Amino acid sequence: MTYAATYGAGDYAGATATMDNTGLAAMAAPNVNLVDGQLGSGAKSGFTFTGQRSAASPSAPATFVFGAVPQSSSGVTATGTRTFGIATDGVILQNPAATALTFSCASGCSVTNGTVMGN
Q1: Distance between CA atoms of 62 and 69, rounded to whole angstroms?
Q2: Rounded to an integer, what distance in angstroms lies between the CA atom of residue 42 and that of residue 87?
């Protein structure tokens, strides 16, 4: 949200064609500093972080989606067993299967196949 309101001129950071870490790298840029460099690389604390966006148009606002997937989901080297995702609405979803969430920016960005993460 902060990126879109400042550096993004109404658009969120990231690629429009695929889920990758382009948006995180943009938010970690030295002149932006909205996330640290480690997260900007797309990997931190045993998770791989990726995102995607849809650009604003005259008929639709800009939207985004970000996800976190464990780098290893089983065995003694497991870094996690749940996948996490968030979209423009700000609701964090989780799924106990390491790759079960569905991320899409086909018609505005969304996360599906998860449950709302409770406190």
Answers
A1: 24
A2: 17
